[in-house]
Write a structure and sequence with these properties.
With about 70 residues, this protein is mainly beta. It is built from 1 helix and 4 strands; from the N terminus they run E-E-E-E-H.
């Protein structure tokens, strides 16, 4: 199974590719899914999230990791 959004559960859709001569062949449309760090239950986790959920604010991005050992 391909990737799907872990927030809205959007997945791949299937349909027909239609040529100029109106011949049909099967094809799939994949959602734009990004693997990003989000805050879930107060802790950062990596989730597959579609760009529609990112844009609408359904998830909150976690702050990027910082290397504290380089400062010492």
């Amino acid at each position: 199974m391909g990737k799907f959004c872990e927030v809205c559960e959007k997945g791949a859709m299937s349909g027909h590719k239609v040529s100029h001569s109106n011949r049909k062949s099967n094809r799939t449309w994949a959602p734009n899914v990004q693997n990003i760090r989000v805050l879930k239950d107060g802790s950062p986790r990596r989730l597959n999230v579609c760009t529609r959920c990112l844009r609408s604010g359904k998830v909150l991005r976690a702050m990027p990791r910082t290397h504290t050992d380089a400062q010492a």
